[in-house]
Amino acid sequence: MLLFGPFRFDAERLVLYTGQSQQLLRPKVLQLLAYFLAHPNQVIKRETLLSALWQHGEFREAALTQSINELRQALGDNAQSPTYIRTLPQQGYQFICEVHAAKCATKRAKQIGVAVSLVAALFFAVDKIHAIWPLSSSEQIQQKPALLILPLQNETGVEANAWWGYAIESELKAQLQNHYQLKPKNQAPELLKLPAEKQPHTLALTLKPRQQRFILQASLDGRTTDVIVEQLGHNFSEIATNVLFALEVTSDHENKTAAPVKDLSDYYRGLQALNEHGPELARSYFEAALVRVPEHLPSQLELAQVAWQQGDVTQAKARFDKITLGDTQDGLQARYHLYKGTFEKAQGEFEAALTSAELGLRAAQQSQQIELIASAYQLQADIYWHTLQWQDYTLAMNAAYALIGSRSFAYSEAQRSFYLANPPAAGPQEKNHLNLVQSKKVLSQAIDYYRQISANLELATSLFAYGQNYLVPVNEGEQSLLEALDIVADSGNEYFKVQVLTYLGFYYIQLHQGEKALSYLDQVQIHESFLPATEQLQLLKAMAWMDIGLVKNDQNALHNAKRQYHQLLETDYISPLTRANTKLMLAWIGLKLGELETAHTLTEQALTEYQRFELADVAIYAEYTKMYIHLKQGQPEQALALADSDNTDAHLMLFYTSAAAQMINNESLAAHSKAKLSALRNSDGLLQQLDEFTRLVGHTDKNILDLLDAPYSVYCQSKWILE
Questions:
Q1: Share in percent of the chain as helix, strand, coil (round to 5)
Q2: Which of these, 33, 117, 323, 387, has the minimum number of CB atoms within 10 Å of its CB?
């Protein structure tokens, strides 16, 4: 037993204790701790740890970072002032806490009579870990060969036969999942773009007509086989077994016990309809499936999901409550908890949603299905983001990234990038995980792929995320969002439609087109149970009226916005962040109306909340708003006291700093700030204002501060190229 700080570590069994309580950690995290304890006070390079513990795996770097973070969290360590694990930039890590070996008085130790050294014990633990403790699910998965099953190519000439592909694919997955790391279909766009040597094994399926029968052609790694299909009936298991046997693929077909044949054709037709058309058409197929097989849990689950997506909250709750899992397969249990957790999150029931996410993660890990595990981590990240738990959010997104790479951010993170309506992706100081360049590439590939295979709902999801990526030119992003709306409007997925309409509203607010924003926001019809979305809609409608008032100097519009903001502050449900955002925007209205003291008080309140929740990217709005107020009050020194020398990419912060410096004749600071501003894109207009301001300062009695753009001139620091 090894002792360090208040902890005890059983090096043989790889168990960490605090007092009498066992710390529950992933085996890989315990291996990492064992390695550190075997090398106390030594500087260990990242590559050394990767070679020792992550010899294989596509996302080794991210997996190591995640495990370091989890270990620090378990030990209560702080990376900035560490007690246990010190990070040495460009060098590696160092375990800096003193480690002792406890004296062993067990009967077994006396019998053996051998003192095992600290290092030897730990090396034994690391070397023998796989025999002592099973690998975690993600580690087991990554040791298996990767296999991608491509969507069935339906060459029968009858579009309605495409459902059969969903059925045979489901059976193939069931027989292969214990032997292969099955890559999800929606990962196909990026996997197929990889160099040939890095691509997974690929199983391609084609259904062709032949006289009065069908031929299923399957190919894998250069091997091809044709299997006769007498009719598109219900013998999916037998057909899948024949395909895998002919291709000499390792599977569970030899041990598979024949199950009673049930007619599930309507269920698979429902899956096809859901993917290609949406829940409106799919619902009738799932209902028909339950008529044939009333106990069919997958159909029950899809109907529960469809119900809330279509806005029927009461029916959705009833359907979820009616489902009994019993000894259901792990994968299906995971889907149940994740579907339910997503529904709870949409209602703002974050505590219940987190419980569902944790149950879903546990079942997903047992099922060893990558997409389910990653989805569970993403759901956890969404909940932590809503509840402003940034450390937990970072760990969850790291875990998703370790499994599926940048695709874990391409969708969920895009929806966090519209700042005041939603905080930026990182929440805390650094946006470590928002890789918009890579997300743009992934989404572009996905859009092309889903167009080819006519997967309309996947296409709409990709278009929606692509339109929210601010590296996409404005006109291109607008067309992407509008196409997504066209698709989803006919799908019956009302919740998705609400999301697209809501974002379009914010999109046009950013472009200072308040009337156009309202034209989309007014189309939103949402059930009152969806509290976060309802709150966001209220905020954006008030923003649209505020934009009209600010741009057109329309007093009625400003007072309308002000009234709506106050109504939002008085609602029973309002998140802390929305409350802060609302106060900041009320301050902007106060600025426009000349109410400087009111604006200052509201800005202070908003800034306090932003700083409390470590929202630096949003706090910058409040900080430069305060700077502007001080400038308007003739207090340039106070404005400069708020300037952040570390912030080099907030246009208005640099803009006001340069103007304030000019007012007190600090030409060096004025020039320095102006130079930083000129290095930013879309700064030409601000630079022209500074030139005019510099020319007039001290030479006119006019209120030259009116030359400067006010804080409300921009709602998003997104550096768009306005075309």
A1: 60, 10, 30
A2: 117
Q: Which residues contact 157 (CB under 8 A, 6 or more apart)?
A: 209
pLDDT of residue 319: 97
pLDDT of residue 720: 34
Question: b vs e for 439-455, b when ≥16 Cβ sit within 10 Å of the residue's Cβ?
Answer: bbbbbbbbbebbeebeb
Half-sphere exposure of 107 (CA within 13 A, CB side): 0
Complete domains list, the chain, with CATH: 2-134 (1.10.10.10), 141-255 (3.40.50), 265-486 (1.25.40.10)
Number of residues in the chain: 723
Q: How many Cβ atoms are within 10 Å of 381's Cβ, its own excluded?
A: 27
- The C-alpha angle 480, 483, 487, rounded to 5 degrees, equals 140
Cα separation of 689 and 712, whole Å? 16
H/E stretch holding 8 reads strand 7-10
Q: pTM of the predicted model, to two decimals?
A: 0.75
Which regions of 119-196 does DSSP assign to beta strands (E)? 146-149, 153-154, 181-183
Structure tokens, 14: 């790889």
The region, left, alpha or beta by phi > 0 then psi within -120 to 50, assigned to residue 613 is: alpha
Here the tokens at position 27 are 């085996």
**DSSP H or E run through 286:** helix 279-292
What tokens does 279 get? 């829940």
Using CA atoms, how far apart are residues 427 and 386, in angstroms rounded to an integer? 10
d(CA 28, CA 33): 9
* Token output for 352: 């219940």
What contacts 39, CB < 8 A, 6 or more positions away?
95
CA–CA distance, 411 with 395 (Å, rounded to integer)? 18
Q: Residue-wise over 687-702: b if at least 16 C-beta within 10 A, else e?
A: eeebeebbeebeeeee
d(CA 644, CA 163): 59
The DSSP line for 352-395 is: HHHHHHHHHHHHHHHHT-HHHHHHHHHHHHHHHHHTT-HHHHHH
Maximum Cα interatomic distance, the chain, rounded to a whole number of Å: 97
What is the model's pLDDT at position 113? 33
What burial letters (b/e) apply to 355-379, b meaning 16+ CB within 10 Å?
bbbebbbbbbbbbbbbbbbbbbbbb
Distance CA 649, CA 658 (A): 14
Q: Which amino acid is at 60?
A: R
Q: From 485, 436, 484, select the one nearest 720 (Cα to Cα).
A: 436
Low-confidence residues of the chain, pLDDT below 50?
104-137, 255, 258, 413-434, 717-723
Give the Cα separation of 268 and 270 in Å (integer). 5
User: How many CB atoms sit inside 10 A of residue 201's CB?
Assistant: 15
Listed in sequence order, the residues at least 6 apart from 160 whose beta carbon sits closer than 8 Å to its beta carbon are: none
pLDDT for 412: 55
- Is the CB of residue 342 less than 8 Å from the CB of residue 304? no
- E strand map for 211-273: 213-220, 223-229
The structure tokens 């400038």 sit at: 631
The DSSP element (H or E) to which 21 belongs, if any, is: strand 21-23
Separation between Cα atoms, residue 721 and residue 188, nearest integer Å: 31
Paired tokens of 139: 């580690």
Phi and psi, residue 9, nearest 5°: -125, 120
606 three-class SS: helix
132, amino acid identity: I
- Non-local (6+) Cβ contacts of 201 within 8 A are 145, 146, 147, 148, 180, 220, 221
Structure tokens at 19: 């007092």
